[in-house]
Amino acid sequence: MLDIEGTTTPIDFVYGTLFPYARARAEDFLSRHHESDDVRADLEALRQQRAAEAQLIKDLPPWREDSTSARLASAAAYVQWLMDHDRKLTALKSLQGKIWEAGYRGGELRGVVYPDVGPAFARWRRMNKIIAIFSSGSVLAQKLLFANSTAGDLTPFISAYFDTTTGPKQDEQSYRRIATSLGLSPDAILFISDTIPELDAARRAGMATLQCLRPGTSKPSSRPGDLAHRTIRSFDEVFPETDSG
């Protein structure tokens, strides 16, 4: 099971391409699609989240309901605030995925993956490995990235996708739910990520773990309570062709 950002895909692509693309188009997208059921659900979830946080966070943008245009402008401003603070809110990720969908289908976006990802997926498939994804990005966003990747359509290699509707990525219960969904014992699953708190949660759930350190990154300093994880710098190191297991 794989993380995306910093594991299959450069962080720069997420923060330098995907996020700015969604940011620039959020208000226009909402104005065009606010009457659709799925966007309406995202808007309501955003409204509820903001209301829940309003007593604790003082710099939230105001939310108005006196007209449709005011409500949509409020939602767009809140989306910008959430992105400014790199929040992993499920409703935000759902909305971002819908915005990116138009970009992928129109050819404006192409999902960037590291050069070793495509060959590794093909190799693992030959070895009858099940490939799953667990990312804070929505399942829709995950599928779009891998379907329109720089290595071609990688979705035929992927058996399952999980996002924060399963639970937070730093919560060990999320990993137990994933194991149950896959019909596997946690100790039969290897989770690869660049983020130590996620790896710690997976390990506490009983999974094997690998910390992925991509070019240009260094292993972060350990903190009290961190678990030890073996590191890799390429998927070439994971189940190589000569591996009998």
User: What CATH architecture of the largest domain do you see?
Assistant: 3-Layer(aba) Sandwich
What structural class results from the helix and strand content? mainly alpha
Treating each run of at least 4 consecutive H or I residues as one helix, how many helices? 8
By CATH reckoning, the class of the largest domain would read Alpha Beta
List the domain count as a whole number: 2
Write the layout of secondary structure elements.
Layout: H1 11-33, H2 37-53, H3 68-84, H4 90-105, H5 117-126, E1 131-134, H6 139-147, E2 158-162, H7 172-182, E3 190-193, H8 196-204, E4 208-212, E5 230-232
Parallel strand pairs: 1-2, 3-4, 4-5
Give structural notes.
The protein is mainly α and 245 residues long. Helices cover 46% and strands 9% of the residues. It has a three-stranded parallel sheet with strand order 3-4-5, covered by helices on one side. The chain has a two-stranded parallel ribbon with strand order 1-2. Strand 1, helix 6 and strand 2 form a beta-alpha-beta unit. The longest helix has 23 residues.
List keywords for this structure.
245 residues, 46% helix
Quick overview of this protein structure:
46% of the residues lie in helices and 9% in strands. The protein is mostly helical.
